[in-house]
Amino acid sequence: MLEIKNLRKVFGAGTVNEKVALDGVDLTLEDGDFVTVIGGNGAGKSTLLNAVAGVWPVDSGSISIDGVDVTHLPEHKRAKYIGRVFQDPMMGTAATMQIEENLALAARRGRARGLKPGITKAEREQYSEMLKILDLGLEDRLTGKVGLLSGGQRQALTLLMATLRKPKLLLLDEHTAALDPKTAQKVLDATERVVQRDHLTTLMITHNMRDAIAHGNRLIMMYEGRIVISVSGEEKKKLTVEQLLREFSRASGSDEADDKLLLG
User: Fold this and answer.
1) CATH superfamily of 2-96+148-263
2) CA-to-CA distance for 211 and 264, rounded, in angstroms?
3) pLDDT digit string, tens, across residues 163-205
């Protein structure tokens, strides 16, 4: 479903601020894979997701989604393949619109719009059923303004909107980092339910090593623009945070792990 070959991205090439963000990354995700991505600050995690989403062009290498080479496609043309949830809960929803209106916009993404009534009774019933999977009581607040929701509720709603049209690939860019631990766990639980229900191929960046171990069927760790650890299956299920830190030290050749990684 996702094939990345020898991906390279350098910022500020030829200047004193040159930074190799991606250094020959190879990564393949099969249909339905749920891969968690972990690494210290500047490891290349968000750069990888932005490269896949088409936020900026890469210097070399290729990216294919479901057999389609999207390497040179602009961001708006890749959008039909990708669902994305950002770190900031305010980015994925329209605050002044109702919950049902936000869902209707997501449902109509990429479709021609006419002058028919905005939201039908059947759609409202469908949205109400869909919201139940979040377990946040939003199914009873369809006409409530999104701007009145908490950060966690908005992030959960963004997740639902991003997956409403079942994307080929779901990108989660530290989507619980701005939430308190209890709310973050609720959003993660909702994420797990949605991904499993729709068999979504998913890349999830997190700074929390326990979350990286607990969720998904595969874990990769990045360091200085490279993938230095890849663990899946039974090996991943048996991982502990301590083992992961030891593996990171061995693979990176360094005993240093940044504070955010350790505290997570």
Assistant:
1) P-loop containing nucleotide triphosphate hydrolases (3.40.50.300)
2) 9
3) 998 999 999 999 999 888 888 898 999 999 999 999 999 999 9
